[in-house]
Every structure is written in structure tokens, then in C-alpha cells.
Design a protein that fits this description.
6% of the residues lie in helices and 35% in strands. It is globular and about 70 Å long. The chain is built from 4 helices and 55 strands.
Length: 810
């Protein structure tokens, strides 16, 4: 019996053994609403290729041409009369920030900044504020409305979400000369501003509430948490010693704070994650021993130190912190990391790093609880130092993602999935491509590639309003090469591609995909011509919009691809080396005057690869027919254009399922087989404080899959017992005490009953992940802002939007 007691004690203690999670920083996400330009000086893959036959009947038109022509004299005259030039004041300095205020308003704010390097208290620095009501064709300086104050460059223009028309600017005031800071607020798209003296100095950007226009949240420089319920007029301090903060649903605020009232960076593993639902009147501690946390629309993530000297675990909640579950993933060592690549209301894409500094790992996809995961892709290429990958969500079609893998020989190859990570395949090369190698595929340069290859000016571009269209820089061969890439376009969500433009370009989508514009990325950074296409990149027309070349800084258009205007931003350099910010805004409304009617559209079945099969177009259990613009139609979709689609459910097949936890899919097979080290028929795991037993045939439906009937495997989860999670323990001592009590009671029962209880191995032990988030402000020279779960961020965490590339959970 003594031997039995010893064995049980050891087993009980093993339940609390953890493995450390090393959090890295996320890959950057483009912020389309606010753009910053700065003046620059002239200066082994486990995936096999999958070929898809395409039925010409599903194409909207036969390709017309793949060439470029110069505008006719008539076209030139129309475009010239609708090309608008504006030069800003000559002392406007070295950077300019743009922000679109409200959707479809045409209002843009431009904040120019002039800073003297190494100056004290911004001596000699200045800023000017401009406003446009016509999509950037003309600007009026409105610096007087903010009393010609110098605006803080690090905070820039803080614009409210959607149609709020609300704006906040933070004045730069020396911390030693004023009791607090000063902000200027506007509720009418910057027609008028109200000056507000703050009782504190801003320590981070102000966080707008996603739905209530009056609610604001921020931190002061002394790490106090402040909230306003009247759009900044009055502020209330609701807590001190706050590390990170995020809006939750409704009036919920999440924040992490130290119980001893300190802000020592070394004490993060002792943080309390708190929730308030009444703006600080009452608080609830939802998690103890927190290192950091993050929140998306559906998932609340937290990194937890379960014991001093031991690695961290990460827990997930889908009910705003009332209950928690631990992610079921392979264990990692201290030199590995986890990264959330994408998240929505249905699932999570998770990257798990391989041991050692290899630059790759394995991608997993979750179920709808964010706890159970299945292997999706091996050798996923990821930069653990900067937290960047080439993972791209093709937002216009469900379940389509593109990323890159690192092969055994060190080459980088692109792969695509059409079913949310269920199956990955190589990208088909454009028709007529010739390669000198046996394997010939298209390879796409993403965010990580842009850091590796400076000749790639833009990542892939896709938008929910432009169905099926993907514009990307790529290279045709057996792997990505360090050469000048060309621009490739797909009109069907990545199944087929055309080589659209020779060499690197900047590009933008207008009029819901009816118009594409591009500017060549020249080696000397000078531009004077614009290219545009009305047939999704098959034919291009060259328009010389400027008489002389100028230094190019950026191409800007209103987020959402609804606009018919595009602006080319840059600056000119005079003989005395002085520089002036300039912008050319081109409006295509006079060139494309015809409004599209029914005859300009054609029905298109997404994901169609074989029209002779009943299951043709069935992806994620659903067929979708879209009304799309014909390539031969030269007309305007218009701002009121709404995508017309009709869908129907498909019968379930094995392709509608991921392999369940403990199972994997063999290469070139749809069958899920049991992991070799999983011997028990039943799988036990800890889910939100309950020990669950999983009985499964090895399949679980892909989150968001809409199939019906057909192949329906057996899968059931049973509640077995309570499993105390260290994530909810108040401290290390209380956790140990609770464990001793549980073990003592357990052993007492065993001695009284006179038999030995067989303890199963807890699969929920030793399986962790780390949540990471970042939002990139697009800069001309710098392309990443680094804040992760183990690197406490002062920046707000916005929700992940599946229909936009403005925000990304990373």
C-alpha cells in the first residue's frame, strides 16, 4: 500500500508539469484607413503539386490580351481634366500621415510633420493639418482649428471606426510643464475641434469602442487605466498598474494588472486578468498568474505561469473568461514558440515552431472552442525573430489561404488551401510558362518575403468586395528566387493565374474589382505614369499623369475598393535641396461613364474544377454562384454595388472533415489514421475545467463547413469529472495546497476501499500555445510594429475581421 501511495503522489504531481511557451511577435497587418509616408533618399515540403483542369465555360470571358497600350488622345483629355494636383506648404517636413474619416464621405485628413533630429522637447518641430472633402483632389489647411498645436507623431490621427466621423488628435505637451496632456476631438469629420485638457498624459493610442461612439479607453504614462463615456470630455481612472487592456463585447473591459501595485516587467507572471462590466465600479478576477493576454471577437487568450521556474501555458475562453480550456497541441521547449496566424468566430490557425532556430514549424487548425487542434501543414515558413510569415487570407472567398513553406534544401515554395487548411497544394503556373526544372509552379511573395527581398514593394492584395481577385508579386520556377518579381493576377481565387505586369509594381483595386490601377516601382523611386486595367489585369493602359517625374512615396485609395479615385503621393526636390509634398489624384468617373446593367454580369461558380461532377464547386460543404462583371464590360459597378450570390449545401464527404485530435491524414489520402503514440481508444482532455472523454472515428467537421447528410462519422464528447486547472489557482502556494488536498482525499478513498485506482495519462498536460497580436501602420520605410503576448503592448488590440485586411490577429 505504501508503494501505491507513492505512485499516486507522483502521478498527481505530474498533472501540473508544464512546458514553457516562448512568444514571438506577429506578422504585420496592413492598416488601410491610416497611412503614413516618409520622405526617402534615392537610394522539405510535404506538399505535392496539384493540377486542376479548368472548364472554359466557367470563365467569364476568353482573355483579350496581355499587353500595355498608351491612352488615346480622347482618353488622355478626359483623364487630364480629372487629374488633380496639390502641393503642400514647403516647410511641411519629412513625413505625412493620411486618414480616411467615415466610409464613403470622401473626407481625408493629412497631417504633415517636421522634426529636427535629436532636438530637445521637439524644439523647432512643427506640424500642419489639412482636410479634403473630395477624396484628396483639393486640401485646405485647418491647423487653426487645433490652435496650430504640434501633434504627437507617435499617436498621429486617431480615427473612429466605420461611419463614426470621429477624430482625435493628441497635442505634444512637455510632461514636466503640464499636469496632463491635451487632445482635440471632432464629431463632424474634422469640421470643428474641441480642445480638452486631460488629467493625465497619454501613454498609448486611445482605443475606440467598436460599436459605441462615445466610449473611449486608454492608459496614462504611469500605467493607470482611464475610461471616458462622453467621447473624451470627462475621464475616470478605474485602475492602476495596468499592463495591457482591451475592449470586450458590450461594456466589458479586460485588463491585466499586478496585485502588488507594481509595474515591474519581471512580475508579469503574477498578473491578474480582470474584467469589468460597469466601467470600473466592480471588478472580477477571471484568471491568476497571467503573463499576458489577448482578445478577438470570439476568443480570449491568456499566457499563464503555472509554477515558478516552469514554462508558461496558454488558456482559451469562449465565454469572456468565465471558463477556460487549455489548447491541445504538441509540447514545445523554451526555445520554441506558438503563433496565432488568423482567428475568426469559427476557428484558429496556429503555428507551432520546430525545435532549434530553423525558421519553420507546423501549422494547426482548431475546432470552434479553440482548444482541440489538428495538423494542417508541415514546414511552414516563419520568422521567429520578427514574428512575420507569408500567411495570407484571401478574404473574397471562404476558406482560401496562401502561405509559404521551407523545403529540406532551404528553398521557399508557395502553397494554397481552398478548404481552410484541410488540404494544401502548389500553385499552378500561368498558362504558357516555361521552366528549366522538372517542377514548375507559381510562388508568391508575402509579408515575410518583403523583408527578405527588398525588390518586392507590396504583399498580395485581395478584398471582400472583389470576388476571386488576387493580385500578387510572384516568380515561376521550383522556388522563390531573389530576382525582380512580376505581378500575377488570379480571377478565380487562386486556381489559375496570368502574368499581368512585368517587374514590381504598387497596385490598388477600385470599383469592387471593376478597375485595377498600378504604378511601376522603379529603381530610382521616381514616377510620372499610371497604369489601369478594366479587365482584371489582362490589358493595361498607360496614362502619363504628371509632366515631370517626382519621388514616389505611396499609392492610396479609400479602404473597401468602392472608390473610383486613386492618389499618387510623393515629393519633389528643388535645386536648394528643399522638398515639397505633392499628390496627384485621378478620378476615373469621366472615363468610365456607363453604369453596369444586368447584361454586364455573368453567373460564376466559385471553386469549379470539373463541371461534369455533381460535387463541382463544393468547398466547405457549400456551392456558391456569384454574379460577376464580364471582363469585356467597361462600366461602373458603383458605390451601392452589392455582391449577388446564391448558395446551396452539398452532401458531406471526407474532405469536409479535419482529422480529429490524436489523428492525422496520410499523404495523398483523405483517410484519418490514429497517431502512433496514442494507444487508448478513448481520449481524455481538460476543457473549461471539466475532464472530457472523446470518442471519435478520427474526423471532426471543419469549422464553418455547411455540408449535410452523406458521410457522417461518429464523434461524441462526454463529461467525466472536474479537472482542476492551474490557470484558475490564485497563487503557487494555493495551487500546491489544493493539489495536496485532492491527492490526500484520493489516496484515503483508495485505502478505505482497498483497491488501486488506475489513472490515465492526462493528455491535456503539456500542450500549450501562445497568442500574439500586432497591427502594422504602413510606413514607407519600416514595415513592422512588434508587440506580442510575452512583450506587453501599450497599443490596443482590435478584433480580427474576416472580411478585411485592416486588422489581423497574429
Amino acid at each position: 500500500m505504501a508503494h501505491t501511495v507513492l505512485v499516486l503522489t507522483v502521478l498527481c504531481l505530474q498533472i501540473f508539469v508544464t512546458f514553457q511557451s516562448l512568444v514571438r511577435e506577429p506578422s504585420p497587418a496592413l492598416d488601410q484607413r491610416t497611412r503614413t509616408f516618409t520622405k526617402r533618399q534615392v537610394r522539405s515540403a510535404s506538399v505535392k503539386p496539384a493540377r486542376y483542369s479548368r472548364d472554359v465555360s466557367n470563365h467569364r470571358d476568353v482573355p483579350l490580351c496581355i499587353t500595355s497600350v498608351t491612352v488615346t488622345s480622347e482618353e488622355y483629355a478626359k483623364l487630364q481634366s480629372n487629374t488633380h494636383y496639390f502641393a503642400f506648404t514647403t516647410d511641411d517636413g519629412t513625413s505625412i500621415t493620411l486618414a480616411w474619416i467615415g466610409d464613403g464621405t470622401g473626407i481625408i485628413l493629412a497631417l504633415t510633420m517636421y522634426s529636427i533630429p535629436f532636438s530637445i522637447w521637439n524644439f523647432g518641430s512643427s506640424s500642419r493639418l489639412y482636410r479634403s472633402e473630395d477624396y484628396g483632389k483639393t486640401f485646405i489647411e485647418i491647423s487653426s482649428t487645433i490652435r496650430n498645436s504640434f501633434i504627437r507623431k507617435d499617436l498621429g490621427i486617431m480615427a473612429g471606426p466605420g461611419n463614426s466621423k470621429r477624430v482625435i488628435l493628441a497635442a505634444d505637451i512637455s510632461e514636466g510643464t503640464e499636469k496632463g496632456g491635451k487632445i482635440y476631438t471632432s464629431v463632424d469629420a474634422a469640421e470643428d475641434f474641441t480642445a480638452i485638457d486631460l488629467p493625465f498624459h497619454l501613454g498609448m493610442k486611445i482605443i475606440f469602442h467598436p460599436t459605441n461612439e462615445n466610449y473611449l479607453l486608454t492608459k496614462s504614462i504611469d500605467s493607470s487605466l482611464w475610461v471616458s463615456q462622453d467621447f473624451g470630455m470627462n475621464w475616470k481612472r478605474i485602475h492602476e498598474s495596468v499592463y495591457t487592456v482591451s475592449w470586450g463585447p458590450g461594456n466589458v473591459i479586460f485588463f491585466a494588472t499586478h496585485p502588488n501595485g507594481t509595474v515591474d516587467i519581471n512580475g508579469r507572471g503574477e498578473l491578474h486578468l480582470k474584467r469589468t462590466e460597469d466601467f470600473g465600479k466592480t471588478f472580477h478576477i477571471v484568471l491568476y498568474n497571467v503573463y499576458n493576454f489577448g482578445h478577438s471577437e470570439h476568443f480570449l487568450f491568456a499566457s499563464v505561469v503555472t509554477d515558478r521556474g516552469h514554462p508558461r501555458k496558454v488558456f482559451v475562453s469562449t465565454d469572456e473568461g468565465d471558463t477556460w480550456g487549455e489548447a491541445q497541441l504538441p509540447p514545445v521547449t523554451h526555445d520554441q514558440f506558438y503563433s496565432v496566424l488568423a482567428s475568426d468566430e469559427e476557428m484558429i490557425f496556429m503555428h507551432v515552431d520546430e525545435p532549434g532556430d530553423n525558421g519553420f514549424g507546423t501549422m494547426y487548425t482548431s475546432g470552434d472552442t479553440g482548444v482541440l487542434y489538428s495538423k494542417s501543414l508541415e514546414n511552414h515558413w516563419f520568422d521567429d525573430k520578427r514574428g512575420v510569415s507569408d500567411f495570407t487570407n484571401i478574404t473574397s472567398l471562404r476558406g482560401v489561404y496562401i502561405t509559404n513553406i521551407l523545403t529540406k534544401d532551404g528553398s521557399i515554395q508557395s502553397v494554397i488551401t481552398y478548404d481552410a487548411g484541410g488540404k494544401w497544394s502548389s500553385l499552378n503556373p500561368p498558362s504558357g510558362s516555361s521552366c528549366n526544372t522538372d517542377e514548375c509552379n507559381l510562388h508568391i511573395y508575402g509579408e515575410y518575403s518583403m523583408l527578405q527581398f527588398p525588390n518586392v514593394p507590396m504583399p498580395p492584395l485581395t478584398d471582400v468586395n472583389a470576388v476571386g481577385i488576387i493580385i500578387a508579386h510572384g516568380y515561376v520556377g521550383n522556388a522563390i528566387a531573389n530576382v525582380n518579381p512580376d505581378v500575377y493576377v488570379s480571377d478565380d481565387g487562386g486556381y489559375t493565374w496570368i502574368k499581368s505586369l512585368e517587374g514590381p509594381h504598387h497596385y490598388a483595386i477600385l470599383d469592387s474589382g471593376g478597375l485595377i490601377v498600378a504604378v511601376e516601382a522603379s529603381s530610382d523611386k521616381t514616377v510620372h505614369t499610371l497604369k489601369f486595367s478594366t479587365d482584371e489585369g489582362q490589358c493595361w493602359t498607360v496614362y502619363p499623369f504628371a509632366n515631370t517625374s517626382f519621388m514616389f512615396s505611396g499609392l492610396a485609395s479609400e479602404p473597401g475598393t468602392k472608390s473610383m479615385n486613386v492618389s499618387i503621393w510623393g515629393y519633389t526636390v528643388a535645386e536648394d535641396s528643399s522638398t515639397t509634398w505633392v499628390t496627384y489624384t485621378v478620378d476615373f468617373k469621366e472615363l468610365l461613364t456607363k453604369e453596369c446593367d444586368d447584361s454586364d454580369y455573368v453567373t460564376w461558380l466559385a471553386h469549379s474544377t470539373n463541371t461534369e461532377r455533381d460535387t463541382d464547386g463544393c468547398i466547405l460543404g457549400y456551392k456558391e454562384n456569384f454574379q460577376r462583371l464580364k471582363k469585356s464590360s467597361v462600366c461602373i459597378n458603383g458605390r451601392d454595388y452589392v455582391i449577388d450570390k446564391v448558395g446551396q449545401a452539398c452532401k458531406c464527404t471526407k474532405s469536409d472533415y479535419l482529422c480529429d485530435f490524436g489523428y492525422y491524414r496520410q499523404e495523398n489520402s483523405t483517410d484519418c489514421v490514429r497517431e502512433p503514440d496514442l494507444k487508448a481508444d478513448d481520449i481524455e482532455f481538460c476543457l473549461q475545467g471539466n475532464e472530457e472523454t472523446l470518442k471519435t472515428d478520427g474526423y471532426r467537421k471543419i469549422p464553418g463547413d455547411k455540408c449535410e447528410e452523406g458521410f457522417v462519422p461518429s464523434r461524441k464528447e462526454y463529461f467525466k469529472a472536474l479537472c482542476k486547472s492551474t490557470a484558475s489557482d490564485k497563487s503557487y502556494d494555493s495551487a500546491t495546497t489544493a493539489m495536496i488536498i485532492i491527492c490526500t482525499l484520493l489516496m484515503t478513498v483508495i485505502m478505505i476501499l482497498g483497491f488501486v485506482m488506475i489513472l490515465r495519462k492526462y493528455i491535456c498536460g503539456n500542450r500549450t500555445f501562445v497568442y500574439r497580436y500586432s497591427a502594422l501602420q504602413q510606413n514607407a520605410d519600416d514595415r513592422c510594429i512588434t508587440d506580442g503576448l510575452d512583450n506587453v503592448s501599450a497599443e490596443p488590440r482590435g478584433p480580427y475581421h474576416d472580411d478585411s485586411d485592416e486588422d489581423l490577429i497574429e
